[in-house]
Amino acid sequence: HTLSLHDALPISMLQRLTLQTFPLPLPDPSTDEHLIRVHAVAPCAGEMLWPENKADPGPKGKMRIPCYDVAGTVVTAPVGSPFPPGTEVYARTEFARTGMAREYAIVTTTELGPRPRNLGWAESAAVALSALTAWQALFVRGGLKGEKGAAEGKRVLVTAASGGAGNWIVQLARWAGAEVVGTCGPDNLSFVESLGVDVAINYRQVSLKDWVDQEDGRRFDLVVDCVGRKTLEEAWWTVKSGGTIVSIYEPPEEKRPKDLVVEGVQSVFFIVEANGSQLKNITKMVEAGDCKPVVDSVWPVEKFEEAFAR
Length: 310
Known about the structure:
It is a single chain. By secondary structure, the chain is α/β, with parallel strands linked by helices. It has 9 helices and 13 strands. Helix 3 packs across helix 4. The longest helix is centred in the middle third of the chain and has 13 residues.
């Protein structure tokens, strides 16, 4: 069974999702494609509102299948693959291909990682997008070293620290040894504190600009913004001269305050990329107990409408 976006029902996004039966996808034996028996997928918040999913391509348009985060078992593999049949794997697949919300799917070698064996299938499916976003924000774009304890002495701010990406950014930054401050709403303060932040800031009570101005030494080597808009503009006031500000929402320069005086700041906007080798590192961390996913709820595929509404 495949969960697909149906071109003939443009009334609402959930009405356009239908459960259908399609032929088994066939991997190309001359490539690095693997056939995966899918056990769980994780929707990305808001993916039904992406422009390509909102568009109505007409009767000849490409079938679109949601969900790019998957956990499953390898059924067939290319010769010499590090993931032979029977291997339990997970992945965030490249967006250029169709999604994984189907009983069998195609995943490439470079996307795959061995799933953490101390997690269930649903928990495994919940890891890749958020964990890869965090890894790339901190260790690829943010300039920290991706080694345990290597960021000792560095200060990191994470906005929306209770969110899907934010909670992983907090956990990985702490694993790397950084001092971490996270922002969140009042209902999530205890959760963010449980992740190991040094300080959790209720953004509804105090602005970031006011908070850093209250004491010397509160500015950050690295700021990772998961919200954009006004929050990103405010986050600019917290970065040190010579520091880095990374946003997963929009280019930071577009929100830089005109009256801010700070020198040598590197600003970065990026979209997460599939990366199996990074997933391998994340698996080791999860199995070592250094970090873990947070699962909101689990739904059978037959209740996809309730799942996407959630």
